[in-house]
Design a protein that fits this description.
- The protein is built from 8 helices and 7 strands, in the order αβαααββββαββααα.
- The chain is α/β, with parallel strands linked by helices.
- It has a single domain, classed as Lambda Exonuclease, Chain A, CATH 3.90.320.10.
- A hairpin with a 4-residue loop joins β6 and β7.
- α2 packs across α6 and α5 crosses α6.
- The structure holds iron/sulfur cluster.
Length: 213
């Protein structure tokens, strides 16, 4: 596992990259403030994950070896996480990230699976050209080609998340369509004025929670 002290920097959870890509404030609320809440989408995701959350080795239908809930990390990039499934096929390891919803090419899940690919490249000294996102909506696997551009986006996003964690910073809310399906909305209160939203998670007396519109 990553020796953060020896590297002189923090290892970033791969899941935080996906959260940051969706909304930087969401990443901070989860990974800085340890705030989490559930909605119908997160519960659906938890149920979809039940089958792959049992760690261990096995075989898939094509008799390829698979590992479920496999810890992965990159010392070079300062990343760590857990792959839902890693299939060891003819061309080496391929991570398969399970999502309950629809797959959106170029979305946050691409960044998450790309980070897993980069970790597997380092761990197994293998090429690992693609990762996959399994969408529960269409029950299909979608290839995510991890080229130089996507790899660079993983690196730059990891640096941004690392800075967020180092500073314990909580960015302003985005207050747009992303908030509609965000499970953190009850605690985030994206419609709150900026000066209130900025300090929502700071301890205060009960009477100090009032604000004017
Ligand atoms: S409610 Fe909106 S601003 Fe708040 S974390 Fe979710 S997406 Fe971000």
């Amino acid at each position: 596992m990553v020796d953060e002290t020896a590297l002189g920097r923090r290892s970033v959870p791969i899941s935080a990259l996906e959260h940051y890509a969706y909304c930087p404030r969401q990443a901070a609320l989860i990974h800085v403030e340890a705030y989490f809440d559930s909605n119908v989408d997160t519960v659906r995701g938890d149920l979809a994950h039940a089958a792959v959350d049992r760690a261990g080795a096995g075989q898939d239908r094509r008799r390829y070896p698979v590992w479920r809930s496999l810890p992965v990390w990159s010392t070079g990039l300062g990343l760590h996480g857990i792959c839902d499934v890693v299939e060891f096929g003819e061309h080496g390891p391929t991570p398969i990230e399970h999502k309950s919803g629809a797959y959106r090419p170029g979305g946050p899940a691409d960044l998450q699976v790309a980070a897993q690919v980069l970790c597997l490249r380092e761990m197994f000294d293998a090429e690992v050209p693609v990762g996959m996102v399994f969408s529960g909506r269409d029950r299909r696997r979608h290839d995510v080609v991890v080229d130089i551009t996507l790899a660079a986006l993983v690196v730059s996003t990891a640096a941004a998340v690392r800075q967020l964690l180092d500073l314990s910073a909580v960015p302003q809310s985005v207050h747009d369509t992303r908030c509609h399906r965000c499970s953190l909305r009850p605690g985030c209160i994206p419609e709150a004025p900026a000066h209130v939203a900025h300090s929502l998670f700071e301890p205060r007396t009960e009477t100090a929670w009032e604000w004017d519109d």
